[in-house]
Design goal:
The structure holds two protein chains of two kinds.
Chain A lengths: L1 H14 L2 H4 L18 H22 L8 H8 L17 H8 L6 H4 L6 H4 L9 H13 L1
Chain B lengths: L13 H6 L4 E7 L2 E6 L14 E6 L9 H10 L13 E7 L6 E7 L7 H5 L5 E3 L5 E3 L9 H5 L6 E2 L18 E2 L5 H6 L5 H9 L4 E5 L6 H8 L15 E4 L2
Parallel strand pairs in B: 3-11
Antiparallel strand pairs in B: 1-2, 3-10, 4-5, 6-7, 8-9
Helix pairs in contact in B: 2-6
Classes of the chains: A mainly alpha, B alpha+beta.
Chain lengths: 145, 249
């Protein structure tokens, strides 16, 4: 019940207009790759169940081509830090932690699972940005000069 | 038709349902009553049906000063053994000596992937389990780190992770508070590589002391080898039906 309440509160918070949200809500880093066909809202609510379902398929039945794998999340959602190396789950800017810290839900996945993508996927990652619009503006100004 | 197994739970999994959808036949018996028949194959795509994966190790070809299999395993799975008693050891080189004659043998020992694994018998949470293709694994999601399996194993094949781990391999998650052991490179098997890291490394050295394959496939190299030449199980007296067999020990 408590979890449901928390989820509802988060959903409500995420649905309010961005002008309210600025500086209050978690700043979720942009991901690469195709957007989820089910929509972000669906994944925000259901990702624990989807991951739990598919992890059992992988571990017990050996099915590795699953819809929801943690490695799959990491390969698109992880971002690079200021040193151009992928952020690990130890960083509070890590894509899982920005929300998990916000709602004070401990995340244990990365005690065992790696929080950075395979080396082959790392080149594709986007850099983490506190303020993507300012970065873009600075870039455009740089180009125009 | 999908027969739910104990491991799979009582319900048809979402994946099996979707996979069998292509051959789904429905018949409406009465308004609101629908009969559905599943004609699709529900075979797991990662697991070869009816397989029994195993290793055959020829101790006569295994030199005492070579530990290529151990370092290959360490690299593949990201564990490190610095000689402490508490360090993980998925595979190790063991020297056997026959007391009467003084003849010495060197061979790698890892999880023997028993047919009747004692580690599975004693596990209180079901985390230690045998896959349908005979690979004995630890499901770290349910492992509580009690270490009963380590005590039950006659081959000392399992280790406990005492310290926090960082920088794991994507294909081998491992972390503090759980038990681990040789998983027969299950990610490589599911990927269809048809070999393990240790066997690959052994081949690369040229000693060719190790062979991997499906013991249940009569045409496989390993099945032909075990049916042609003498091979033994370690501690055969325990009657555990091991997946790893040795020659010339």
């Amino acid at each position: 019940m408590k979890q449901l309440l928390v989820s509802v509160l988060i959903m409500a918070a995420l649905l309010v207009s961005p002008s309210y949200a600025e500086g209050v809500l978690p700043d979720i880093p942009k991901a690469i790759g195709e957007p989820h066909p089910e929509g972000n809202e669906y994944w925000r609510v259901n990702h624990p169940d989807l991951l739990r379902h598919d992890r059992d398929q992988t571990v017990i039945d050996g099915i590795r081509d699953v819809d929801a794998s943690l490695a799959g999340c990491v390969s698109c959602h992880a971002v690079k830090g200021p040193d151009a190396a992928p952020l690990t789950a130890e960083s509070d800017q890590y894509f899982c932690r920005v929300c998990h810290d916000y709602v004070a839900v401990q995340i244990d996945c990365f005690q065992c699972h790696t929080s950075v993508p395979d080396v082959a996927d790392q080149a594709r990652l986007l850099p983490y940005s506190e303020n993507p619009m300012a970065d873009l503006q600075a870039y455009l100004e740089g180009v125009s000069q | 038709m999908i027969i739910p197994t104990k491991e799979k739970g009582a319900e048809v999994s979402r994946r099996d349902f979707l996979k069998s959808g292509a051959a789904l036949a429905t018949a409406t018996l009465a308004p609101g009553v629908t009969l559905m028949a599943f004609g699709g194959s529900a075979a797991a795509d990662g697991m070869k049906p009816g397989a029994r994966w195993g290793l055959l190790i020829d101790a006569a070809k295994c030199p005492e000063d070579c530990s290529a299999c151990v370092s290959a395993c360490s690299n593949e799975h990201g564990w490190e053994n610095n000689g402490l008693d508490t360090d993980p050891q998925w595979i190790r080189k063991v020297t056997l000596k026959e007391k009467a004659t003084g003849r010495e043998n060197s061979l790698p020992v890892m999880c023997q992937h028993c047919d009747e694994p004692p580690c599975v018998d004693v596990c209180p949470t079901g985390a230690s389990f045998k896959r349908e293709d005979g690979i004995v694994l630890v499901n770290r999601h349910t492992c509580i780190g009690c270490r009963y399996c380590m005590m039950a194993c006659p081959f000392k094949a399992r280790s406990f992770v005492h310290e926090p781990v960082t920088g794991q391999k994507t294909t081998t998650p491992r972390g503090i508070g759980t038990v681990e052991g040789c998983n027969l490179c299950v990610h490589k098997i599911d990927r269809g590589d048809g070999t393990t890291a240790c066997v690959e490394a052994c081949k690369a050295t040229g000693y060719n002391a190790m062979m991997f394959g499906d013991l249940n496939d009569p045409e496989s190299e390993i099945a032909i080898a075990v049916s042609t030449y003498a091979s033994v199980e370690l501690r055969a007296d325990l009657g555990l039906g091991l997946g790893v067999r040795y020659q010339n020990i």
